[in-house]
Here is the input.
Amino acid sequence: MAYKQSPGRGNNAKTGHGIPSPFKQEDPKTAKMKAQIAKKEVAGATYAETKAAEKFANKAPGTGLMGGTETNLKSGKTQPKGYEKSLKSGKELGLDKSPKDMFITDSAGKVVKKAEAKNPKAIEALKKEYEKGKASTKDARTANSAAQNYRLKIAGK
Here is the structure.
């Protein structure tokens, strides 16, 4: 009989091996923020939190809006701003030399990233990167908006 050695389990992580990456991601920021707000509402605001909320509601210096949020003039509440970047083709940008190439542009219309049409994998990767960035930004801005609206609620506005 010959000796046969079989390999061990290898150097895979102890948890999460074989699980698709979307299932391994952390909780979105908005869900975490809403959970924190719910805990605060049950426990009640402290004196310091109330004073800080009143300063924020009265627009005291140094208590401006968080990044990516704006005030809704009708309701007085804060809301998340839209995503500044956009995904465009060369045709949409008016590029005759590369009408099928894909581009990510900033709010000023400057090209931030490019994928050439001759590489379909690069185009798909660029689209995924854009969607991931858009979703992440929206999530963070929604969480910021929820936190600010809670501060307004504490202040009685």
About this structure: The mean pLDDT is 84. The longest strand covers residues 111-115. The beta strands are 69-71, 78-80, 86-89, 102-105, 111-115. The chain has four helices and five strands.
